[in-house]
Write a structure and sequence with these properties.
284 residues; mainly alpha; MetI-like fold; globular
Length: 284
């Protein structure tokens, strides 16, 4: 038997119309720059800055894509970004999931205080840490290396991932773990065979956030990477911007190519994305 909600809770037709109009305006505002970038990537350099802009390039060309890909070290930039983003995501998820499981299931002195200190990492702007991180990387001999990127990207993502995963782990019924414990399963077995499979929505959310953050990161990579063969994709795209002129066709073509892996990752995990995000935020 279904129950009707009170009339004052049901939105009016005017309210729905206003809501849809605002959502449409927001969607257009977000999609329009991407469409312009996609359109410009197929234009010749002489047509890039024409006024009014051509939304449908004529004649269309793929020369920007071939020129960008065949430029010095660009495939290497792409490969470096893939390696850094994948390794960062795997290591960050492994460490943060173990930390979140400890905070969610184990009772030890100072647990809540340690968790709150960990959350301070969400409140400190990343740019404020550039100089301390550079000094630390220098002492650890991590300058001008992909390892230096991975280490600090993992450290930057631990706070958010631990926060999201802890909320999801706390939502898992303790009775399931107790049943496995009766069967002789230890904490590592329960974590690996029970908690992680049930936490796929939260892990998908953390995967998307971590991969996107490490894939797009620019300031830290610019700070510590000097060797061209070790640069990542954001640094490589920036090279198309000169002091006196910018090859916007190449910039936009390279940017479209850089979006590809991000779309693949999102499509692979989007089914669990919303559920994992809301559960972590509500239960955390």
């Amino acid at each position: 038997m279904t129950t009707m909600s009170p009339a004052w809770l049901r939105p009016s037709r005017t309210g729905l119309a206003v809501r849809y109009i605002l959502l449409t305006i927001g969607a257009v505002a977000m999609v329009l720059p991407f469409l312009y970038m996609l359109s410009t990537s197929f234009k010749g350099q002489q047509y890039v800055l024409t006024t009014p802009p051509q939304w449908f390039p004529h004649p269309a060309t793929v020369s920007n894509y071939t020129t960008a890909w065949n430029s010095d070290h660009f495939p290497r930039y792409f490969l470096n970004s893939v390696v850094v983003a994948v390794v960062t995501t795997v290591v960050s998820l492994l460490l943060s999931s173990m930390m979140a499981y400890a905070f969610a299931r184990f009772d030890f002195p100072g647990r809540e205080a340690m968790f709150r200190i960990l959350l301070l990492g969400l409140m400190i702007p990343a740019m404020m840490l550039i100089i301390p991180q550079f000094i630390l990387a220098k002492y650890l001999h991590l300058l001008d290396s992909l390892t230096g990127l991975v280490v600090f990207y993992v450290a930057a993502s631990l706070s958010l991932n631990t926060f999201l995963l802890r909320g999801f782990f706390e939502a898992v019924p303790a009775e399931l773990e107790q049943a496995m414990e009766v069967d002789g399963a230890g904490s590592i077995t329960r974590y690996w065979r029970l908690i992680l499979p049930l936490a796929r929505p939260a892990l998908a959310t953390a995967t998307i956030f971590t991969f996107l953050a490490s894939w797009d990161e620019y300031p830290w990579a610019l700070t510590i990477i000097n060797t061209p063969s070790k640069q990542t994709l954001p640094l490589g795209i920036a090279l198309f911007q000169g002091q006196n002129s910018t090859l916007w066709g190449l910039v936009f073509a390279a940017s479209i190519a850089a979006i590809g892996p991000v779309i693949v990752v999102f499509l692979a995990f989007h089914r669990h994305f919303v559920q994992g995000l809301t559960t972590g935020a509500i239960k955390g």
